[in-house]
Amino acid sequence: MPINHQTTITLNGVPQYVSIRAERDHLPLLLYLHGGPGDAALPIVLKYNSELEKHFTVVVWEQRGAGKSYYDFGDSTVTIATFLEDLHALVTLLTERYRQEKLYLVGHSWGSVLGLTYTEKHPEKVRAYVGCGQVVNMKKASRTGYEFAAAHAGKKALARLKKADCTYTGENWLDDLLFVTKQIVKHGGSLYGRTNYNPLVTPFLFSRYYSIPDLIRRQKGSLQAIKRLWPELMEVNFEGRTEYGAPVIFVEGRHDVHVSSALAKEYYDTIQTEKQFHWFEHSCHFPQWSEHEKFHTLMVDLLH
């Protein structure tokens, strides 16, 4: 019997939107952790990854403050640890409800910070962790992205880039971050074969699960999360952490400079426990969508 639960559940006192879909009962759980921070992705996952519902019970969580889970953070304390606590609450709820000891965890970009950290802390809950656009060392990745932008910039953009601080610690760090990111996208280092994010916006406009107010909330949630979490995110560095109690799989776009895939491969080579690495040759930062059929095949292969 097909499963399609679109629901709001309370995690650590905060209502958060969760989509749970499968073509039949009793399929293994797969939890998708979106990027950002604050960049909800439900309509894109439904568009490009719905094939997974034949083999998994696919759970897409719109994290606190993101998309359909938007609320004003106000003066509350919101840190990476807050999201990890939410994640653990959700994993516990799902595994109990569906009577499964473990689940598959897919983390993209910001979500890969949560996913890899969670796998290290709670391997008993993870069948396998799949990192797409895996974050390793944010300071190094930011420098790589900045250098790519500078190498491709025109005269006017280069003048602006020379004023930017790619450590994103200065007074104008948010403006610098948004400008550098825009340049990376413009010159094809983020979404393969594209110079804008239009293909990632369209699914939201036509999704039956997203209203116009939801779209507005998504924009507000993304900006709020970046403002609140980016300084802490810049301190993330997995280098030196080489052992995980569950299998770790990296899915990397060969041309990703948004979050350097070259850095991900260097780090992967240091991991001492069960692991796999997959290059997606026609992808940058979004291999799970740019080459969704290949991604689907890879995920199904994990079941065998």
From TrEMBL:
What Pfam families would the database entry show?
Answer: Abhydrolase_1
Q: Name one GO molecular function term.
A: hydrolase activity
Instruction: Quote the InterPro entries the UniProt record gives.
Output: AB_hydrolase_1 (IPR000073), AB_hydrolase_fold (IPR029058), AB_hydrolase_sf (IPR050266), Peptidase_S33 (IPR002410)
Domain named AB hydrolase-1 is located at 28-136
The source's domain of life comes to: Bacteria
UniProt keyword terms in alphabetical order: Hydrolase
For this chain, the family text in UniProt reads: Belongs to the peptidase S33 family.
Name the chain's protein: Alpha/beta hydrolase
Give the species.
Hungatella hominis
**Highest lineage ranks of the organism?**
Bacteria, Bacillati, Bacillota, Clostridia, Lachnospirales
